[in-house]
UniProtKB/TrEMBL annotation:
One Pfam family named in its UniProt record: SBP_bac_3
SUPFAM superfamilies with a match to the protein in the record: Periplasmic binding protein-like II (SSF53850)
Name listed for the protein in its UniProt record: Polar amino acid transport system substrate-binding protein
Domain Solute-binding protein family 3/N-terminal: 47-268
Organism annotation: Conexibacter arvalis
The organism's taxonomic lineage, starting at the top: Bacteria, Bacillati, Actinomycetota, Thermoleophilia, Solirubrobacterales
Record key words, sorted: Signal
Length: 289
């Protein structure tokens, strides 16, 4: 959800030090051609460029008062920048264009973790640890009266979802007979269902609060699917990939990820009777179970 006062800049615009697009691309492509890790340049320049789409509250959005980026993913990325000894810069790109923008060298790594699918891994490299675990849920418009998700597998039903999201492929697999309406963001998808233009909403757990406030009804209380969301960066940059993986493992172990998840996400959705799963170190969790 895009909060009041938030504005998405033109794709590729940079907030922070104000690098131009040509400077940005040439720096990244030069390092790639030389087989160097972006980590060396980040440490030298003390700046790290994150690709973001700030239209997904409470994960990433602009604070309505300060107009500064915040949310679960943004706060984790700020900590990642600090661990690198660098200042974070936010390169705003529409969600559907993040991978192509990464490949074009417009930023160092994504700043809003996404589902690590095999198809995406053909184009970018993912960290080997999750930044958060996303449960996906199905909502129905008021008065539709469905009691089982299988009832959506009908040619007369339309499911609204985020274009380019992992939910698109899941919906194709589970509901091949239903119509799918891919929309640019979760706000548009939720509005499409709340106004009766679509019958159901397929969305991540972070958007449960907004869906319920718009009067949509959960078809079932448990998630339809659960997926890793994590950082991606250029293919072949093993050094940076290892650093990000280690950072995420550390922040899972010291409960930073769990505490931020509770602050930005879980505290909102749990009031609607839905339990989310914060990222914790599995070995420590087992030891203290």
């Amino acid at each position: 959800m895009l909060l009041a006062g938030a504005g998405v800049l033109a794709a590729g615009a940079v907030t922070g030090c104000g690098l131009t697009k040509s400077e940005d691309s040439s720096a990244s492509s030069g390092a790639a051609a030389a087989g160097e890790s972006a980590l060396a340049r980040i440490k030298k320049d003390k700046k790290v460029r994150f690709g973001v789409d700030l239209s997904f509250a409470p994960l990433q959005y602009r604070d309505p008062r300060s107009k500064e980026p915040t949310g679960y993913s943004i706060e984790v990325s700020k900590l990642l920048a600090a661990a690198l000894g660098a200042e974070a810069e936010w390169v705003e790109v529409p969600f559907q264009e993040l991978i192509s923008a990464q490949k074009a060298g417009r930023f160092d790594m994504v700043g809003i973790p996404v589902v690590n699918t095999a198809e995406r891994a053909l184009e970018v490299a993912f960290a080997a640890a999750p930044a958060f675990l996303e449960g996906t849920y199905l909502f129905q418009r008021r008065g539709l009266g469905l009691s089982r998700i299988e009832q959506l597998n009908d040619g007369s039903k339309t499911i609204a979802l985020l274009a380019g999201s992992a939910q698109v492929n899941t919906a194709k697999l589970l509901f091949p007979k239903a119509k799918r309406k891919e929309l640019p963001d979760d706000v548009a998808a939720t509005a499409d269902v709340s106004t009766g233009r679509s019958d159901a909403l397929f969305v991540g757990d972070y958007a449960i609060g907004d869906a319920r406030r718009k009067g949509l009804e959960l078809i079932q209380p448990r998630p339809v699917a659960t997926a890793w969301n994590t950082y991606f960066l250029p293919q072949g940059d093993i050094i940076l990939q290892q650093f990000v993986t280690t950072f995420l493992q550390q922040k899972a172990s010291d409960l930073t990820l769990a505490n931020l998840w509770q602050q930005f996400v879980a505290s909102d959705i749990e009031r609607y009777g839905v339990q989310s799963a914060p990222v914790k170190d599995p070995y420590l969790a087992a030891a203290y179970a």
